[in-house]
Design goal:
The chain has helices at 3-15, 57-72, 81-97, 99-110, 114-135, 171-184, 199-211, 225-234, 247-259, 284-296, 316-328, 348-363, 396-399, 415-423, 438-447, 480-486; strands at residues 23-25, 28-30, 37-41, 48-53, 142-143, 150-158, 161-165, 188-192, 218-220, 240-244, 264-268, 274-277, 308-312, 367-370, 373-375, 383-385, 387-390, 406-412, 427-428, 430-434, 452-455, 470-471, 474-475, 488-496. With 501 residues, the protein is α/β, with parallel strands linked by helices. The protein folds into two domains: 9-269, Aldehyde Dehydrogenase, Chain A, domain 1; 274-462, Aldehyde Dehydrogenase, Chain A, domain 2. The strands form seven sheets. A seven-stranded mixed sheet has the order 14-17-18-13-12-20-21, sandwiched between helices. Helix 5 (114-135) packs parallel to helix 6.
Length: 501
């Protein structure tokens, strides 16, 4: 099929879609209690995708009440592990059957390339659901050492009502990293999607009902962070909030927890991740590809974005030239075109943020290596081309998270200098190392203050490995069995035994 035909087919399919716009509470689609709505703008062309219910405190109250009732009566919590597993697998299968619909909604809502949504985001969401369906009976308890006077054991129990607040960069994937393990542990969930990308979250919850999840177990309340998000985090009957997003909002959630019922909080926040290329890098071409796509993937809107490239001075000129050459081939295009690998920023505001950081880098003396800036303005969409600067440690571009397609390149002359530069940030989410020296690789992995360290690859892990950061990148882990455990309480039970007669 010709690429042009693929674009036309995708546009035709998108025109036939039903855009989910209402809250889903207690198994029913609802407008906001006060009738409020917000405009959902498609970043690919700046056109409206419809007005979405703007949930507020009353809607959150209703969703939490529904989730609490569903938890307390045991309609989901008390089902056997076998039954939960079967239903979550059915849920995953239902998502898979609707994969193309979900991918189109995701691309329209976020501006990401349809090829990425189809090839990575939606399959990853299905994979997460299947992983936790299979894992839910693998989190076993503990039995204490035997004693003639007591029998002690520890068990995991679901928390109750979990609030999940997810970002707009990977809307369905981030939702399923939280919803799937929370459900697998037997909790009920109230999901608040980002107002920039509400559609796949609502549709996913509809599909959960279709798969057989009891009403009330999974509720979705779209709305703003200040209204729906704050109400969820302040709610006295919510037992936990799991959040992925910005540091300032993470701080608010910590305060809300303290000001309400001391609900537990899990935070996956920002990053300023370095890729460090040593002179003995075993494959400069692979490293250059990783350096370019590590920051430009998803238009740079990735919390683990490799926005700092640290290169040894001995190879810096040659290596950076390779990265720039690759970046020149990354051309923004229509998100619905199957040939597009780099789409639109999620919103006009996020586009302007990226442009502002480009201006700051220029003002602070950054050396332009690849000029970017706004492109495709005539489409009405929000596009920023890949941009690369040579910078010095300590400048704004080396410290602050852009969340856009802007790369800062820094040279170094020794391992110690590289580690010092890499760790000179308030964040600690991810880091990459390129070296043929096994000893150097292991030493660097231990020295770098990051929750994820990739050696001779970037983002080279999967659902089986924990995802989360150090320092101001937050705490708590998504993915892996660690995520399953965070949605449970650990209870110690002891029987006092009568002496044998």
């Amino acid at each position: 099929m010709a690429e042009a035909d693929g674009l036309l087919l995708n546009r035709a399919a998108a025109a036939e879609l039903r855009y989910p716009t209402e809250a889903l509470i207690d198994g029913q689609s609802r407008a906001a209690a006060d009738g409020a709505r917000f405009a959902n703008i498609g970043p690919g062309d700046g056109r409206s995708l419809g007005d979405v219910a703007a949930g507020g405190a009353r809607d959150v109250d209703a969703a939490v009440a529904s989730a609490r009732a569903a938890f307390d009566d045991g309609r989901w919590r008390d089902q056997s592990a076998k039954a939960k597993k079967a239903l979550l697998f059915a849920f995953a299968d239902t998502l898979a059957r609707h994969a193309d619909e979900l991918a189109l909604l995701e691309s329209l809502d976020t501006g990401k390339p349809i090829a990425q949504a189809r090839g990575s985001d939606i399959p990853g969401s299905v994979e997460a659901t299947r992983y936790y369906a299979e894992a839910l009976d693998k989190l076993t308890g503990e039995v204490a050492p035997p004693s003639p006077t007591r029998l002690s054991y520890a068990v995991h129990e679901p928390l109750g009502v979990v609030g999940a607040i997810v970002p707009w960069n990977f809307p369905l994937l981030m939702a399923m990293w939280k919803v799937a393990p929370a459900l697998a542990m037997g909790n009920s969930v109230v999901l608040k999607p980002a107002e920039q990308s509400p559609m796949t979250a609502i549709r996913m919850a509809e599909l959960a009902l279709e798969a057989g999840l009891p009403p009330g177990v999974l509720n979705v309340v779209p709305g703003t962070g200040e209204a729906a998000g704050r109400a969820l985090a302040m709610h006295m009957d919510v037992d936990m909030v799991a959040f992925t997003g910005s540091g300032p909002v993470g701080r608010k959630l910590m305060r809300y927890s303290g000001d309400s019922n001391l609900k537990r909080i899990s935070l996956e926040l920002g990053g300023k991740s370095p890729q460090i290329v040593f002179p003995d890098c075993p494959d400069l071409d692979a490293a250059a590809q990783a350096a370019a796509w590590g920051v430009f993937y998803n238009q740079g809107q990735v919390c683990t974005s490799a926005s700092r490239l640290l290169v040894h001075e001995d190879i810096k000129a040659e290596f950076v030239a390779r990265v720039v050459e690759i970046a020149r081939t990354i051309v923004p295009g229509d998100p619905l075109d199957p040939a597009t690998s780099f789409g639109a920023m999620v919103s006009e505001a996020q586009m302007n943020t990226a442009l502002r950081y480009i201006g700051i880098a220029e003002q602070e003396g950054g050396k332009p290596l690849l000029a970017g800036g706004r492109v495709r303005a005539e489409t009405g969409g929000f596009y920023v081309a890949p941009t690369i600067f040579g910078i010095q440690p300590g400048v704004t571009l080396a410290r602050e998270e852009v969340f856009g397609p802007v790369l800062g390149v820094i040279g170094f002359s020794s391992d110690e200098e590289a580690f010092a530069i890499a760790n000179d940030t308030v964040y600690g989410l991810a880091a990459g190392i390129w070296t043929a020296d096994v000893d150097r690789a292991h030493a660097a992995a231990r020295r770098l203050k990051a929750g994820l360290v990739w050696i001779n690859g970037w983002d080279s892990c999967d659902i089986t490995m924990p995802f989360g950061g150090f320092k101001q990148s937050g705490f708590g882990r998504d993915r892996s069995m660690h995520a399953l455990a965070k949605y449970a309480d650990l209870k110690a039970i002891t029987f006092t035994l009568r002496p044998s007669r």
